[in-house]
From TrEMBL:
Basic and acidic residues: bias regions: 219-230
Biased composition regions of type Gly residues, renumbered to the chain: 272-284
Chain positions covered by the region annotation Disordered: 203-301
UniProt organism field: Rosa chinensis
Protein name: Putative transcription factor interactor and regulator CCHC(Zn) family
Organism lineage string: Eukaryota, Viridiplantae, Streptophyta, Embryophyta, Tracheophyta
Source species, domain of life: Eukaryota
Amino acid sequence: MSNEPRLDFPMLDSTGSDYHSWVTDVENHLTSKGILPIIQAPNPDLLFNRTSTKHAQAVILMRRHMDKALRLEYMSIKDARELWVALEERFGNVQDSLLPDLKVQWNNLLFADFKSVAEYNSEALRLQSMLRFCGQPVTEQELIEKTLSTFPVSAIVVSKQYRTEVNAGRITRFHQLINIISVAEKHDNILVRNYNSRPIGTKSVHEANYNAPKRGRKERNSRNKGHEGRMGPYNRPNQEGNRKFGADTRGGNATRGRGGRGNPIRGNGAIARGGGAMGRGGGANPPRERPQRAPQLKGGNHNDMCHRCGSSEHWFKQCKASEQLASRYRAYRDLREQEVYLAEEEENGGDVNLTMEDFKAEDEVHKDAADFD
């Protein structure tokens, strides 16, 4: 634990700079204990019993709030009145040494030098108290004039407005001016904070899905809502493309179930007892025919054309064209293949010798073949 004594007010140092406030604190504490007359001059009209106990209480209070150097210097004094007079003789003329420095501080006091109104108010009141202690009191008008004449240049318009209020008699006390300036400072800070919160012209945007409806578990399950919501590979209606569609009839087998792979259990040429391939206690569903894929329209992939008649409306197995049309389409394809072959030979630089008979034969083929382009 620390050996420092418990202090009720600031300690008096050896320079005596705060002697005036120390004197006030000591007198207040002695008054609260009812022994203030112990440090005052004897008064015959006042009935007060000066006992050693009261002297000890006053001395202990003063010594506990003195600097260590002062305690060593006055350690032999046990009379409270004697100690009080000794300190007064030593620091009683401290006003003479403090006054020049206080005057310099007062002249250099500027409202524009402080970051906030509260800091300026505290310093102005401290100087007013110190000057009053030194016998140089500062009036309310001097405080008001000091404040208005030291405003920053950027707030000169505001200073003129406050001076107008003072001249009109609506502001007569220093604390009234400080209160008005403090309120204006609060509003200015709010304005600056709102201005710097985000760039001009922008708007705060809520985070993603801020206004999205919150659905429950049952609503998120699309199976309970008749395939509503987002369509996936497993929750689309019964149509081609659904992985579950036709799964129970793939390969001619029934749906797999407990007790088998879906094929009937054969035994002596008959189906075993149990009713089918769905497993224990169930029958197989009748196989459903797998729908044919819808044919693509014209202009689709060339591989989907009918190789018999050249139509893109159906495939080779569903072709119902006549033999005459089919033979003409074959002749047309052969001709196109010859043209492609000749074009490739020309590109390769081959020597091609054509005669009139070649063109006559080509004309006859063109007349026999239908126009399939």
